[in-house]
Amino acid sequence: MAAVSPExxxxxxxxxxxxxxxxxxxxxxxxxxxxxxxxxxxRVLLQSLIMVAAACVKATRGEPRGTVKLLTSALELxxxxxxxxxxxxxxxRVKVEAALVEAQRWHEGGAPFVPAFTLxxx
Length: 122
Fold this sequence. Notes:
The chain is mainly α. It has five helices and no strands. It is 66% helix and 0% strand. It starts with 5 loop residues before the first helix and ends in a 15-residue tail after the last helix.
């Protein structure tokens, strides 16, 4: 697979920093900007990250149904690995799966899901 373009790499790093600072909307915007201009294999990764960030926005707005729907869709798209991106996707996928379980409990009447997981660069 080809290396991530410098622009996409920067957007991935910027979005990662924003996501980890719990600035989910800003992370979404950073990744979406790259997604709009990238027509290569990185689009699927970017789209899955956008969905995770959007799910976290929904969670902070008290919308359990949307949170569950977006996390489910993100996991369906998220590549198992994407070494060229420089992100620890394997670890992140596990965190998103755990977040989905919490969000589903919330949707079924449990305690609200509060996004507190991070995405690490390698």
